[in-house]
Specification:
The complex is a heterodimer of chains A (118) and B (237). Chain A is built from 4 helices and no strands. With 118 residues, chain A is mainly alpha-helical. Classes of the chains: A mainly alpha (118), B alpha+beta (237). The A-B interface holds A 1, 4-17, 19, 23, 25, 28, 31-32, 34-35, 38-39, 41-42, 45-46, 49, 54, 56, 59-60, 63 and B 3-27, 30.
């Protein structure tokens, strides 16, 4: 059952690598925020799964609002001359680690439960 | 457990994979495009174009000089003979005609062996500098050299020997080692005066140096333009 998401990841990676589109240098930081936001959403979704409170609407809307807010912040930062997008990068980075830690905890407790059941 | 989660996670994975590789690709593309190297390539093209143009112009000058020679040949009968002779000597003096005769050929090269042996050392100690060529040329002149050329570039009154980075400019032409300095004159005298000073110093520093005495040496004509805008002839008072 984990095959489908993996296939999705590979398909996305394939399309991303074949697409040849010149990104203007000013938009590169927006792209980096999008990368972090999507990674954060994937890990957040997996974590929610393991904690049994998964909701697809929350996941997708979370991704888009987070990405949008981060982009807005980056744009505002550009206007103001402050690297505000770093705040988004920081938040996403912290959340990545937190989600990863939660996933690890969830997986470990699952593993222990299985052993006890046997 | 229901499978409702499968599709959203797949979509998210797809988006994440897409952005990840796309960004990777964009960043890889950026690191290869260096504005400085781009500028350098532009400059190199400009230099190459200009050198091509110089070559064409030199050919044009050569053709025109040939034509002039022919016209002068035609008029050679009669009283012009004396003037023609003096013109010929003037041309030899100016370096506008190829000349042949006895002389020596000196070949000097960068001390690549030495640099390989001491890679941490200052490479400046192992390459030929324009000043060394200038010294050799000066000594050849002292030794009575009547015509000198370096790598086929005839040295005339306006010829420069100039350092341009890792190359040497002679007659606005880029010259790279090994340098072959040909000089027409008394072989024995030239060899003696050159080996006594600059070549001896270079030999001590382990530069590959070679000196040959040649019976029949041909030194090409100066190919460039030769015009005097400011200097005017003045009668000898």
């Amino acid at each position: 059952m984990w095959i489908l998401p993996l296939l999705g990841l590979l398909a996305g990676a394939f399309i991303g690598s074949t697409l040849t589109y010149e990104v203007p240098p000013t938009y590169i930081k927006y792209m980096s925020i999008a990368v972090l936001a999507s990674l954060d959403s994937v890990l957040g979704g997996v974590r929610a799964l393991l904690e049994n409170d998964f909701d697809s609407t929350v996941l997708l809307s979370g991704f888009f609002t987070n990405a949008l807010l981060a982009a807005l912040l980056a744009y505002l930062g550009d206007r103001l001359g402050v690297d505000l997008y770093l705040a988004a990068v920081f938040v996403f980075g912290v959340r990545l680690f937190q989600n990863l830690a939660n996933i690890r905890h969830g997986l470990l407790s699952q593993l222990r439960n299985n052993k006890q059941e046997k | 457990m229901s499978r409702k989660w499968l599709l959203p996670i797949t979509i998210m994975c797809f988006i994440a994979g897409f952005f990840l590789t796309f960004q990777l690709k964009v960043m890889a593309g950026i690191s290869t495009v260096n504005p400085i190297s781009e500028r350098n390539t532009n400059l190199i093209t400009i230099i190459n174009d200009l050198e091509e143009e110089i070559k064409n112009q030199e050919e044009l000058i050569g053709e025109t000089r040939d034509n002039l020679d022919k016209l002068q040949e035609e008029q050679i009968k009669g009283r012009l003979q004396e003037l023609q002779d003096s013109l010929k000597t003037a041309k030899i003096l100016a370096g506008l005609t190829p000349v042949a005769g006895k002389g020596i050929v000196i070949t000097v090269d960068d001390n690549t062996e030495g640099l390989k042996a001491n890679p941490d050392d200052d490479p400046n100690k192992y390459i030929i500098h324009y000043s060394q060529l200038l010294n050799i040329v000066s000594e050849l002149k002292v030794g009575g050299a009547e015509a000198i050329s370096i790598n086929g570039q005839r040295l005339i009154t306006t010829s420069e020997i100039r350092c341009v980075g890792n190359l040497i400019l002679i007659n606005t032409t880029r010259i790279a080692p090994p340098f072959e300095i040909s000089a027409i004159g008394s072989p024995r005298l030239l060899a003696e005066i050159v080996t006594a000073s600059e070549l001896a110093i270079m030999k001590l520093s382990n530069y590959p140096v070679d000196l040959k005495e040649v019976e029949e040496l041909i030194i090409p004509a100066y190919k460039g333009d030769l015009q005097f805008k400011y200097a005017q002839t003045k009668g000898e008072n």
